Every structure is written in C-alpha cells, then in structure tokens.
Amino acid sequence: MAGEGLEQQVTTLLAGALEKRPDLFPVSLKVGADQSIRIILDGDQGVSLKDCIDISRAVEHHLDREQYDFSLEVSSAGATAPLELPRQYRKNLGRTLQVRSGDAEWEGTLEKVDDQQITLCWKAREPKPVGKGKHTVRKEAVIPFSDIEQAKVVIKF
C-alpha cells in the first residue's frame, strides 16, 4: 500500500474488513484535507457498537501513523439519516418512509424495491365517485431512485 494515497488505502482496508462481514456495507467514506477519515456503515440487521469498533480497528491498525497523522471515526447510519443506497431501502421494506422528489412528497409503506425504483403505498380518504361522502382508497407511487431527492424512515413512538 506504500505510495497509495490515504483515501485509496482506507478504501482497500475497508473493503477487506467488510469481506468478513457481508451483512455490513459502507454508506459513505470521506477523507478530509486534514486527513480526517469518516466512515458511515449500515447493515442488513443494523450496526452495533462492536461492529463499528471492529471495522475501526481493521482500518486503523493497518495505516502507518508515521506516514499519516489521521483521525478516524466509524459510525452507523442514524435512524433519522436519509437513505442513500438501494440496499438501505431493502432493509426497510414494510416500514413507513417519507420521500421527496421535486415538488412532490409522499409518505407511505415501502412495499417494493428493485434496482431502479421503489413502490410506496398508503390509504387516503377521497370523495365517492357517485353520491355524497368519502371512502378509503389504496394509493401507490412508483418512484425511480434517480428522482428521489430525500427519503427517510418515519419513526413512530
């Protein structure tokens, strides 16, 4: 790894550490000009403190402190952090999401995810087509990943 830049070394070390943990995946990796390293992880079954420590050690113990004066932070994607990767959507199937795309905004249950899009479903009260009053209808929105500006899991207490 000598001669490689810090970011490339960290990327290689992170990939090696995650090979042993296929349930974990990186959401982001940022290396600042001040050699601060920030890794955000997510996992198919969540991320524990021990997972963060293990990945931190796997990266830190293989970087040369004499070559780089770095700081390292490994954390999990927070419960209120926006979803960024299709794999994060898959782990949240069945949960309520709030999705924004352009001028449109939806809140509904994440019913389907594929490599290109998501499907949200919700119930709405609408006027009856004939007669007075309202009835409940099932609505659905198919939203391509390319159109999603922000998506968050709605936390309910």
UniProtKB/TrEMBL annotation:
Residues in Ribosome maturation factor RimP C-terminal domain copies: 84-157
Name of the protein: Ribosome maturation factor RimP
Keyword GTP-binding tagged: no
Any Pfam family matching the protein: RimP_N
Record localization: Cytoplasm
Keyword Cytoplasm: yes
Superkingdom assignment: Bacteria
Principal subcellular localization: cytoplasm
Domain Ribosome maturation factor RimP N-terminal: 29-79
Family recorded in the similarity comment: Belongs to the RimP family.
Function description: Required for maturation of 30S ribosomal subunits.
Keyword line: Cytoplasm, Ribosome biogenesis
